[in-house]
Amino acid sequence: MTTTAEPAALLALAVEVAAEAGRVAAEGQAGIDVLDTKSSPTDVVTEMDRAVEKLIRERLLAARPGDAVLGEEGGADAGSTGVRWIVDPIDGTVNYLYGREDWAVSIAAEADGEIVAGVVAVPVRGDVYTATIGGGAHCNGERLRVGPAVPLELALVATGFGYDADRRAHQAEVLRSVLPRVRDIRRCGAASVDLCSLARGRSDAYYERGLNAWDYGAAALVAREAGARVGGLRGAEPGPDLVVAAPPGLFEALHDLLEPLGADTDG
Ligand code: IPD
Ligand code: CA
After folding, report:
1. Which of 3, 58, 66, 204 is deepest in the core (most CB within 10 A)?
2. Which domains are assigned to the chain?
3. Known active-site residue 256
4. Is residue 171 exposed (0-12), middle (13-18) or buried (19+ Cβ within 10 Å)?
5. Whose CA is nearest to atom 15 of ligand 1?
6. pLDDT surpassing 60 at residue 1
7. Ligand 1 atom showing the smallest separation from residue 95 Cα
């Protein structure tokens, strides 16, 4: 890895760009009228998603020409430096649309195929979650640590649901079996915020099917660096099939509950 691809340097750039993107998106949120947006076929949120991602791409590539970028709205641009940025301009678009607080700008830096730095900025809450590989996870500069591995029946478990109706029907079936086995469920509406909240000890565990790399890339590093185990089922890496995150000990208990339920399938 070259000096310019040091995780700390990549993180510093990501934080600066996420702060500007977060300011622009937060200003835009104030002007959105949910009813107007619902009745309009050209969705204001989509416009804002696109505008914010364009800004992020421009800023990243101005600072580091030749890097690759994968973004939720703009797709994949190839690069030549071995560094790839994984960008979700607004994670939690439905929350954003409804004037709620839990939405985030998420930027991860991958070097030679491994995520080495990530920032999840939650502008309305004033929270900036950061992590570098081996360097720990922080929120607004304070070191993060997951909570203890509580027994499954005492665990506050966060999850989320995809947009596809058939997938949701099975996710509801899985949830029907999970709910009586845990303390309670939370659905905040932004996967990146869920993973960062786990890193902060504000939930005990998290699972979700159907996420994309931009939803969890930066936040999974935050959770891992805060001490969580983050993976899929049967030893798989976290991915679109399933992301499970919890402190070691609780991870295994949640895994063993989810596996026979087919939580990594659409039923
Ligand atoms: C969504 C959010 C939501 C999760 C969905 C994601 P988006 O991302 O993270 O919490 O349940 O699976 O697609 O569409 O708001 O960027
Ligand atoms: Ca997203």
Report:
1. 204
2. 7-143 (3.30.540.10), 152-261 (3.40.190.80)
3. no
4. buried
5. 92
6. no
7. 15
Cα–Cα nearest to 72, from 217, 207, 198: 217
Does the CB atom of residue 73 touch ligand 1 within 6 A? Answer: no
Is 70's C-beta closer than 6 angstroms to any atom of ligand 1? Answer: no
The pLDDT-based confidence of 116 (bands split at 50, 70, 90) is: very high
Residue 91 is among the residues annotated as catalytic for this protein: yes
Closest alpha carbon to 90 in 46, 128, 40, 129 = 46
Mean of per-residue pLDDT scores for the chain: 95
Average pLDDT over residues 215-222: 98
53 is an active site residue: no
pTM assigned to the model: 0.96
Cβ(215) – ligand 1 distance below 6 Å: yes
**Is 166 an annotated catalytic residue?**
no
C-alpha 264/C-alpha 257 separation (Å) is 12
Residue nearest to atom 16 of ligand 1 (CA): 91
pLDDT digits (tens, 9 = 90+) for 226-265: 999 999 999 999 999 999 999 999 999 999 999 999 999 9
| Residue 237 per-residue DSSP state | P
In Å, what is the CA distance from 265 to each residue of 57, 107, 170, 187, 262?
33, 28, 8, 20, 5
- The residue written with tokens 């609780």 in the block is 250
Closest CA to 256 of 215, 194, 210, 207: 207
Say how far apart CA 255 and CA 149 lie, in whole Å: 13
Q: Is the CB of 190 under 6 A from ligand 1?
A: yes
For the Cβ of 71 lying below 6 angstroms from any atom of ligand 1, the answer is: no
In the residue annotation, 67 being an active-site residue is answered as: no
Please state, in angstroms and rounded to a whole number, the distance separating the CA atoms of residues 18 and 12: 10
pLDDT digits (tens, 9 = 90+) for 85-97: 999 999 999 999 9
